[in-house]
Amino acid sequence: MVAVDSAGTPGKDGAPAQIEPFPPLTALRRDFIWGVSTSSYQIEGATREGGRGVCVWDPEGRRGVIPGKDTGDIACDHYHRYPEDVALMQRLGIQAYRFSVAWPRILPQGRGQANETGLAFYDRLIDMLLAAGIEPWLCLYHWDLPQALDDLGGWTARDSVGWFADYAAIVADRYGDRVKRFATFNEPSIFTLFGYGFGESNRDTTEADALHRAIHHVNLSHGAAVDVIRARVAGSSVGSIHNVQPCLPSSLADVKAARICDAYWNRAYPDPQYRGVYPDLLKAAIEPYMQPGDLERIHRPLDWFGLNHYSPIYLRDDPGSRFGFNFGDRPPNTPVTPVDWAIVPEGFRDTLLNLAKDFRLPIYVMENGLGAYDKPDAQGTVIDKERIAYLRDYIAAMNDAAAAGADIRGYFVWSLLDNFEWDSGYAVRFGLTYVDYATQKRIPKASFDWYRALIKTAALRP
Fold first, then answer.
1. Containing domain of residue 325, as a range?
2. Is 200 a catalytic residue?
3. How many domains does the chain have?
4. Is 60 designated active site?
5. I need a labelling partner for 122 at 20 to 30 A (CA). Which of 138, 328, 333, 423 fits?
C-alpha cells in the first residue's frame, strides 16, 4: 500500500495520508454510506467456466473489434480471486459493495434450468462480504444479456419482461435471506441508446423503432422485477440506477438537440419508473408499443434513486442523424480528464439538486470516478493525483447539494478495480486499485489510500 503526503508524494511510514485537503463533509448524514461499485462482466472473467452461458459481449470481444483485441474472458479473474478483492474492500473500510449478478452465469440460456454452480459462486461472495462487515448491494442487470435471448429479439421482444421477471425470482429466492438492497438495472439508457439507437445505419428508422421498443420493454421488466423482489424478500429496499448527465447545447442553435438528448438519456427511464409518465418528446414514439395498464406496471413503489454521474454531454443539432442530435463541442478551456471527459463538479451538484426536487426520494450515488491511463512508476506505485483531485471536487459538490437540501445517503466510487471498460477494452482505468492483467496482481493506488482516509475521517465527525 502506498501512502502519500499533501504534495502527492509517497509517505514515509506507510500510514494512510492525505494527498489533498479533504472535501467538506459537514452536510452529509451521520449514517452516510461509503462504498465502491463493480459489474460482473467487467471483472469476473471465467466466461467458459462453471456452466456459464454466452452473453452478448462475448462474441463482440471474440470478433476482435475492441482495441487491443481485448475480451472479458479473463478480466480481473474475480471469479477465482474474489477473496482477495473482498480483503481489499475490508482494508478500504467501505460499508457497502455494489456488484451485479451475471444473468448467463445463473441461467446459461437466459431461461429454463438454473445453474447451481453459478448460484453457489454468488453465495460465497455474499457470505464473505457479510463476514467482512460489508453490506451487499445486488444489481440484477449490468449489460450482460444472455446471447440466447438476444437471438430471440432481446429487449426488443415483449417476452423479455417475463424472462427478466423469472430471472429476478431466482435471484431473490436464493439471496434474499442475506441481501436486502436490490437494483433492477444499471444505466438502462446507455445500453439501449448505444445498443439500438446509435450505429452505422444512422438513418435507419427500423433501428429507431427497435430503440423505442427496447425502452418500453426494459421499463416493463423493471416494474415486473420490483414486484418479484417485494413479494419474495422481506424488508427489501429497491431502486434502479440511472446515468444522469447534464445535456448542454454546444451553441445557442443547439438547444433543441440538447432537449431531445435529455429525453432519451436522462428521462426515458426515471420518468416512467418514478413518476408514471414518459417524457413528452418520447410519448408518440413509445405509444405504438404500449398496452393498457403498462404505465401502472412500470410505476412501482421504489425506495431510492441510484445515480451514476461523470460529466456533462454537449450536443449539436444534426438534422441528418436518426434522432436530430449529435455530440458537439464543449466550451473552450473546459478542464478534462485524461480520457477527455469534461470536469464540471457544479454539474454534479445541480444534477443532485434537480433529482431531489423531481423525485423526492433518497439518492445514492452509485458510480462516480475518473478514467485515466495509469501506470506504476519505477518503484511500482501508482500515484494517481488527477483521480484524487476529481474525487475531492465531486465529493465537495455532493456536500454542497446536501447542504442545499438534497437527501443524499451514499456514495460509491467507480471502481474498486481497473477492469474491462467495454468498447475501450483494458486501456482505460477507473480503479482505486491497479490491476496488472498479465499477472493479476492488485496494487492499491494513491487514491485507494486517500479514499480510505476520507472514510475514516467521515466516521470521526462529531
1. 33-374+410-435
2. no
3. 1
4. no
5. 423
